[in-house]
Amino acid sequence: MWGFYFSELMNSLPFFLKGLWMTVAVAGLGLIAATIIGFILGIMRAGRNKILRYSIGAWADVTRGTPFLVQVFIIFFILPGVGIELEAFPAAVIALSNMGASFICEIVASGLLAVPQGQKEAATASGLSGYHQMRHIVMPQAMPSIIPPLVGQYVLIIKDSSVVSAIGVVDVTRVGWLTVQRIPEGLMVFGLVGLLYFAVCYPLINLSNYLEKRMSVVNTRL
Fold it and tell me: What is the CATH number of the domain that holds 205?
C-alpha cells in the first residue's frame, strides 16, 4: 500500500511543482515590495521626525504583534465590506508585503541608528545634504549590520507564505492539502511539501550564514 501511495505521489509531482512556482511568485513579489517599503519606512523610522517615528513604530508593532493569518483574513474577507475587493493572489501579496515590511523596517532602522552620531555630524559639517549623507556615509556603514538579518527575514517570509493557502491560493501547501485527501499518507505528502520549501529556503539560509560571517569581519576591520 505504501508503494502505491508513493507512486501516486510521484504522479502528482507536476502539481506540486506548479504549487511551488505559485509559492515563489507570491513570496518573490512580497519580498520585493516588502524590501522597498521596509527600507523607505526604516529610513523614516531612524529620522528626526517624532511623529513619523512613532507612527511607523506603532504600525510595525501592531503588524508584528498580530498573527499573519488574521492579517490575511482582514485583507481578503473584511476589506470587501468597505468596498475593496481583491482576488486571492493580490491579497496574498499585499498581506505578505505588509508583514515583511514591518520587520524589514525595524531591521533597517536599527542598522541606521547603530552608525555613530559622530559620522553624521562630520557629514553635516562637510556640507553634505541629508540625501548625500544617507547615500554616501550612513547607509554604507549600516549595511553590514542590515544585510545578514535581512536575508534571514527573507527565509521567514517565504515560510510564512504558506499561510496564504487559507484563502485559496494554490501554492505548494494548498496542493499538499488537496493531495492528502486523495493519498491519505500525511507524513509522505507533507514531507514532500517540506522538502520543496527547504529547497527554496536552504540557499538563503546558507547566504545568510555566509553574509553574517563576512560582515562580522568587515565590522571588525572598521
Answer: 1.10.3720.10
pLDDT digits (tens, 9 = 90+) for 60-112: 999 999 999 999 999 999 988 888 889 999 999 999 999 999 999 999 999 99
Q: How far apart are CA 42 and CA 44, in angstroms?
A: 5
Q: Is 161 helix (H, G, I), strand (E, B) or coil?
A: helix
Residue 195 is part of which domain span?
Answer: 2-221
Question: For the whole model, what pTM was predicted?
Answer: 0.88
Grid cell 517615528 in the structure block, residue: 53
Distance CA 50, CA 37 (A): 19
> What is the C-alpha to C-alpha distance for residues 185 and 219, in angstroms, rounded to an integer?
50
How many residues in total does the chain contain? 222
DSSP annotation string for 70-135: HHHHIIIIIGGGGT----HHHHHHHHHHHHHHHHHHHHHHHHHHTS-HHHHHHHHHTT--HHHIII
From the list 53, 50, 65, 26, the residue with the least C-alpha distance to 173 is 26
How many structural domains comprise the chain? 1
CA-to-CA dists, residue 30 to 75, 94, 95, 103, 211, angstroms? 15, 7, 8, 13, 22
Q: Is 139 helix (H, G, I), strand (E, B) or coil?
A: helix
